Amino acid sequence: MSFTIVLWILIWGGMFTGIYNIQSSGFSRDLFSMFQGLRALFPIFAAYLSVLWIFGKRSPLPYHIAPLRFLFLYTFVGIVSSFFLSFQKLTAMYWVGVYIAPLLAVWVALDRPKGLEELRRLLYVNYGIFFFITLSFFPQSLKAGLGKISHNAFYALPFGLGEIRSNGVGRYALVVVIVAFVRFLVQGQRRRYLWLAVVLLSLFLLVQTQSRTALLGLAVAGVLLVFLRGLDPRYVIAGPVAAYLIWLSGVKWRYQGEIGNLMVLTSREYTWQKGVIQIKQSPFLGWGFHADRIMLNSEHMHNSYLHAMIHSGIIGAAFFLAALVSVWILIFRSGLLKRARFVRGPDQALIMESTMIVGFLTARSFFESTAAFFGVDLLLLVPTMAYLYGWVHKEDLEEGSPESV
Fold first, then answer.
1. Nearest alpha carbon to residue 336 among 229, 230, 228, 226
2. 269-327 pLDDT per residue, tens
3. What is the model's pTM?
4. How many domains does the chain have?
5. How far is the C-alpha of 256 from the C-alpha of 248, rounded, in Å?
6. By residue range, what is the domain housing residue 7?
């Protein structure tokens, strides 16, 4: 197991916990409370190990990876605002620390002799975790049945780690759908139908969650697949099926056929309004990480750009937006949508999956706080963006083209 994988597993180990478990009076009451509290420090430890590696190797920041560069700048502004402006400095600095951990781990991966291969491994670790968690939801999903569970329902995580609302479950299911369907299209005949079975099971779970962001992501990923893969006779079946499932779950079940209710924001607009009021009081630097929970009575911003703005103001939010925009500039300027279909080997599937996942998370960012704080989306997005940049950079160097920035 490589050093980079160890770092990444440590960072994942800090998921579904936080500083609240360290500060809890029950921290030492029982072994599980102690475990939850210790897990909250795993990403901090991974960040510490990464810093030791970077300074020991005198590793320069991989400037050609634009999203990584911009996210570091976003984090740097967040450090300043967290230290000087936050009302709960310890809490804010903790969340800055865990946020920067995956950025540092990817920096370490890129500094390894085979940086692109290290990024591939991180993607496969993410896939393995997503597949495992998604599969763990199936017993609950099958017990509930189609159409019999509310979109506000909670699903239990394995090992008693907590619960996730349906919207979050939809995210896991969609990523598994994307990966499994791409593998169904590109791999050999014998494995193909195993992947198709995974697709069908994950679609069952996705439809059951009635998650609008996941259903929107399914539509976005489907459109991107047409550009990535080209026309395929199988789309004649897959396209109408996907459209029907989106209508069934998102319109018929969730809103009883009332299409006009699709634009209902489930009170997000009120949180946005309260967030904007706070942002106006510190427009340039924001209020530090975790500011939405601290200043809005534990409410969640549900918008990446407003979330970034309350964390680190207009300056930090501009860097955060630049990170996402830079990926799409790369995709279109490099002709990646067309080049992907001519790639051979494991990179073909990874490029298609990564592009579709970036598309899904970009769409999701308008209604959820994708990658603006430490969470599953960040761990999914950072190595994915770095992998796309790393692959294009490597290919351009081999072809003698100008370096992509």
1. 228
2. 889 999 999 999 999 999 999 999 999 988 889 999 999 999 999 999 999 999 999 99
3. 0.93
4. 1
5. 9
6. 3-399
